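Students often ask why we bother encoding 3D structure as a string. The short answer is that it lets us treat folding as translation between two languages. Here is a chain of 197 residues written in the first language.
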Amino acid sequence: MTDLFQEPDDATPLDPALRGDLLQSWITSRADLNEAEEENIVRGATWGRRRRGEAADLLTEHFVKTLHKQMFGEVWKWAGAYRKGELNIGIAPHLIVAQIPAMLDDVRYWVEHNTYAPDEIAARLHHRLTQIHAFPNGNGRHARMMADLFIERLGGTAFSWGSGTLADAGTLRDRYVAALQGADHHNIEPLLAFMRS
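And here it is in the second language, the structure alphabet:
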């Protein structure tokens, strides 16, 4: 049995103090947590895809927070709420409330002015969400869902994200992290290639 708080080196660690924030008392191992979160994420994806409107309707702070809550709200008390503490990744917590709206404004501008191709806009949205790391956990999964919903609203198809699950450490996760690190250094191409691989 894997300990509930054991994480891959490149993942956001779960603070053991968060154990009290679990809403399901049956979750005692990492496998239990993964199962509960996956079921909740599927319901969150369904919720997101049932929303009507344009791509711009996803580009609101309300939608960003509500999607996170829909994806994790049956597992964690803090789902949909911005983090208050420092993590091993992401910006300082007090900057989140300013950076999320600024990032969403950028994305709206890119769409309105055809600054980038739709896939690239979705990749940049995804990358910036992971850089900000607004929530205590689930940021990568949330950012991938935002990118998928966004590209679908633009008339495209959801991304394949390397055609596998990123939950486990290994080659696929390593490729994903390397692609994000490339984007950190202003090279979006590896992330775009990974998203459609």
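Translate back mentally: The chain has a mean pLDDT of 91. Keep this in mind for the problem set.
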